[in-house]
Amino acid sequence: MRLSVEPTTDPNDYEFTHQIRVRFVETDAMGIVHHSNYLAYFEESRVAYLAHIGHPFTQWRDDGLESPVLESFVTYRQPCRFDDVMTVHLHLAAATRATFQMNYLITVDGEVRTSGATVHGCTTTAGRPTRLPAWLVELAPSA
């Protein structure tokens, strides 16, 4: 397992937030968000974070890089429901020369709903492993 930093449930521990409104299509017959959608919420927030810090994912692709997910972890604490406005809190938790970990916390009106983490590798667009960009390693706390 590459996961090295446990996500916290304190929103103040996260340096970036992104809001997402739950769409009806993302809910199940009980009116709650289907568990598989949380990884998509993490991804949307991660892409927004990269754009926010001046390194949009399109730039990664232009530079010949990808960041495939190697591991994902989600703790479902309370359900999200249709039309909830979720705040996804994101933190670049760790980086090595070849992997990085992002931690996430989802809140609705300040109430913790979900936490999680994703661990990513770095490959060329041809799928060959390569080192992370230096700027990303420099942004992360030590693993």
Automatic annotation (TrEMBL):
Keywords: Hydrolase. Signal peptide: none annotated. GO terms for molecular function: fatty acyl-CoA hydrolase activity. InterPro entries: 4-hydroxybenzoyl-CoA_TE, HB-CoA_thioesterase_AS, HotDog_dom_sf, YbgC/YbaW. The lineage of its organism: Bacteria, Bacillati, Actinomycetota, Acidimicrobiia, Acidimicrobiales. This is Uncharacterized protein. NCBIfam families: YbgC/FadM family acyl-CoA thioesterase (TIGR00051). Belongs to the 4-hydroxybenzoyl-CoA thioesterase family.
